[in-house]
């Protein structure tokens, strides 16, 4: 991409903003900000395309609420660009406050006569996810079938369809979709993880482990070399976990209070083979509760690298550990009903 003044001197303002959006995608915030200033001078700060670029930059900085405000102002002007409505819907969905508003933005995008195949596919996938979360799996599946044929070979399509099929208890078909997803994107750990969960749900333990080992392999490679936790990190994380455990209701605390705690960089292949989830910040060692017999907890492991991936600053460590502990207690001790009751009380 051209840099500096060469970009700012582009005569066509739509091309200028397109380059600003590309700069944002390439994480060149300085260039994107300069283009935003130039576009604002030419079109005015309230032009929908200027507001869209401003929203994208706010989103990139982590301020989703501010980004949503920019996108909504742009969408209120009924622009003819699908990407404005879709970005607005994504942020509304991320905020989780009103999915009906996100749905309205997506349907507005889909009504545009000039929407291209890529944007149509993006809108339909997100809309299907929203309908699935609203317990309408049948409509979610119908929406996915409307995706342009040229996009139905992509991993994102197969993944979204698998989610719907799992909800409809059509697990065999879901696994076929996930096989296609990991074939299309073999280096994306998300699809292997989704495949692993689906395999585990039908009792395919070995298949689930194979998928989770692939997740561990890819994410370890993506994360890069990782040193073992320092003595200070171990002490800090143990202290925070102890504080978190004290917040647990007595029936849950009694289940975990006497287990020894270790801090590692992440799960080892051996631990994943034993059932550890490579994506959880806390996992239990021992024998989980089965239909017959009681659970036997022999150790609690804090996965430092996974924990750090989940948080933005140290103030979030306690909450992240609490959520991970609650989830692991529910799974390991088969206490889903108890977790739900305590959370609701």
Describe this structure in words.
Helices cover 66% and strands 5% of the residues. It has 345 residues and is mainly alpha-helical. A three-stranded mixed beta sheet has the order 1-3-2. The termini are far apart. 37% of the residues are buried.
The gyration radius over C-alpha positions equals: 23 Å
Helix content: 55-70%
Put simply, the count of helices is 19
How far apart the termini lie comes to: 56 Å
Strand order of the largest sheet: 1-3-2
Strand content: 5-15%
Tell me the structural class: mainly alpha
Mean pLDDT: 93
Total number of β-strand segments?
Answer: 3
State the order of secondary-structure elements, H for helix, E for strand.
HHHHHHHHHHHHHHHEHEEHHH
Q: Stretches where pLDDT falls below 50 for ≥5 residues?
A: 340-345
The global form is globular
Mind describing the biggest β-sheet? 3 strands, mixed
């Amino acid at each position: 991409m051209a840099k500096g003044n060469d970009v700012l001197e582009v005569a066509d303002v739509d091309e200028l903003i397109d380059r600003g959006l590309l700069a944002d995608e390439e994480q060149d915030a300085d260039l994107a900000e300069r283009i935003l200033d130039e576009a604002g001078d030419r079109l005015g700060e309230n032009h929908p395309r200027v507001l869209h670029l401003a929203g994208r930059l706010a989103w990139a900085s982590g301020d989703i609420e501010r980004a949503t405000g920019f996108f909504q102002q742009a969408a209120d002007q009924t622009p003819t660009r699908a990407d404005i409505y879709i970005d607005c819907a994504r942020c509304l969905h991320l905020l989780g406050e009103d999915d009906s508003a996100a749905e309205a933005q997506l349907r507005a995008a889909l009504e545009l006569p000039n929407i291209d195949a890529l944007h149509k596919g993006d809108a339909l996938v997100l809309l299907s996810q929203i309908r699935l979360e609203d317990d309408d799996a049948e409509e979610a599946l119908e929406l996915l079938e409307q995706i342009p044929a040229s996009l139905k070979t992509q991993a994102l399509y197969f993944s979204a369809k698998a989610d719907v099929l799992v909800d409809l208890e059509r697990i065999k078909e879901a696994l076929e979709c996930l096989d296609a997803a990991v074939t299309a994107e073999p280096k994306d750990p998300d699809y292997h993880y989704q495949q692993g969960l689906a395999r585990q749900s039908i009792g395919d333990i070995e298949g689930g482990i194979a998928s989770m080992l692939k997740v561990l392999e890819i994410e370890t490679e993506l994360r890069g070399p990782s040193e073992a936790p320092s003595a200070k990190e171990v002490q800090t994380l143990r202290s925070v976990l102890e504080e978190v455990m004290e917040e647990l209701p007595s029936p849950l605390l009694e289940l975990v209070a006497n287990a020894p705690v270790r801090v590692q960089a992440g799960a080892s292949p051996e631990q994943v083979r034993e059932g550890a989830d490579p994506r959880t910040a806390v996992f239990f060692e021992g024998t989980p509760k089965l239909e017959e017999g009681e659970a036997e907890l022999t150790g609690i492991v804090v996965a430092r690298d996974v924990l750090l991936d989940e948080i933005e600053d140290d103030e979030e460590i306690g909450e992240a550990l609490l959520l991970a502990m609650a989830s692991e207690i529910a799974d390991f001790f088969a206490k889903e009903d108890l977790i739900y009751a305590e959370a609701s009380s």
